Amino acid sequence: MALPPGPRAPGIVNLLRFARRPLERLRAWRERYGDVVRVKLTGFGTGVYVADPDAIRELFTGEQSDLRAGEANSFMAPVLGAHSVLVLDGPEHMRQRKLLLPPFGGSRVAAFREVIREVAEREVAGWREGSTLVLRQRMRALTFEVICRAVFGVTESARVERLRELLGAVIDSSPIYMITPLARADLGPLSPGRRFARRLRAADEALYEEIRRRREQPDLEQRGDVLSLLLRARDEQGAAMSDGELRDELFTMLGAGHETTATALAFAFDLLLRHPAALARLREELERGEDDAYLDAVVKETLRLRPVIDAAERTLTQPRVVAGFELPAGVKVYPGIALVHMREDLYPRAHEFRPERFADAGAESYSWLPFGGGIRRCIGAALAQAEMAEVLRAIVPRVELRPLRERPDPVVLRGITLAPKHGVRVVVERVLQPPGSPSEGRGRKAAEVAA
Ligand code: HEM
């Protein structure tokens, strides 16, 4: 079995090059080695990137029993928990996934838009002329609150702040503790491992308390937040989710859904600010308020050009033919999200930000892949896109921002996501609508208020 061609450099060299400029590195590998590239990355083992949409379709829709995705995520289990849909495979994964999918369906997400708009309007109302913002940080605060309200169903601000403090303390410091078991070792009362365990316990207690409160809430049957829906959900055997499962999935949704969406939003602003014509067209459409075609296209084009996750990941448990190569068991296959998005045959002038490419036609399933695919496709895809659209709708008409850097933020690897190196720093040039003004927020009305 011959593995596909790929760079011969040691794994650590590949990893360092990749982490520094992931998109450029992927492009260079594909140009040199083709649509199927073998890469050794220290800490991740040998993987095979696939840039061919047909081969990716086969991976996402073909036989799944010899593909594992949870196994590759198992390093997250110490924080997300053993029941997390992200770390499970096989029937156990399917059980969690079937329980989690309905609360994230189209009609549910439509109901969350109002909550998102409120949170975003409150955020932008605090922005003052002349102030400097790191947009990725502001977006993280915002998407955290959206998860608290829409997913956890917690709206009381003191409780939101408490969760922000306790869960934030774990989420912010978790990558190092997830990746290095030694960092988690309890080496005495002052050791980092002991401190992390304490923080994790405090976060768990807060989540279990929310679960307990919700179970006792008299209006549980009428509530539409994800936690309430999960409390009412039953699996195929009629069994409800245990508190442990609920805790793990709440943590998972926060871990998978908060930073990713915030990063995607920061990228959206960075791209819009570098493309004044696109920004003007978006403003115009939002002012007209007739439809969201261009707004949705901006979201899609941002996720194409700046995918937050560069590749999905599947580990082979059996030999399998992938894109014509017979790969042995144990190899990781990476359906190359970013690689597909860079293909000139699918996206002419692929390196350019051109939302209009999505304005008339939708996105094709196997050429637009920011959320992966098949039985592991992102559960929060509709929520994330709604969130991006509503945040842009709330913020773009209200402020003029000026980027502090001359050129777009370089894309770097942060943990397992691609992120803007400097977090997208901007100055608030002009507030177009005074903070605290009526928050109808949509279309012509908002423009008139602003004028
Ligand atoms: C722009 C924001 C987001 C991006 C780019 C993103 C991307 C992804 C990707 C690429 C995967 C792996 C798919 C695969 O392996 O085929 C994934 C899985 C997942 N995402 Fe997201 N995601 C985002 C937001 C969210 C949100 C808001 C939530 C929930 C609140 C969420 C929850 C999940 C979960 C639970 C999984 C695991 C699904 C499974 O293993 O069955 N994500 N996401």
Supply the number of helical segments.
Answer: 19
Distance between the termini: 68 Å
The CATH homologous superfamily is named: Cytochrome P450
Helix content: 40-55%
Q: Could you name the CATH class?
A: Mainly Alpha
Distinct bound molecules: protoporphyrin IX containing FE
Strand content: 5-15%
Count up the domains: 1
Q: Averaging pLDDT over every residue, what do you get?
A: 91
For the largest beta-sheet, the strand count, sense and barrel status come to:
5 strands, mixed
**Tertiary shape:** globular
**Structural class by SSE content:** alpha+beta
CATH architecture: Orthogonal Bundle
- Uncertain runs with pLDDT below 50, 5 residues or more? 439-451
CATH topology: Cytochrome p450
Spatial sequence of strands, sheet with the most strands:
1-2-8-5-3
Q: Any idea what the radius of gyration is? A: 22 Å
What is the total tally of β strands? 12
What does this structure look like?
The protein has a five-stranded mixed sheet. Residues 439-451 have low confidence and may be disordered. The protein contains 19 helices and twelve strands. The chain is 51% helix and 11% strand. It has one domain (11-232, 239-450): Cytochrome p450, CATH 1.10.630.10. It is of the alpha+beta class. The structure holds protoporphyrin IX containing FE (HEM). The site of protoporphyrin IX containing FE has 26 residues, from helix 12, helix 13 and helix 18.
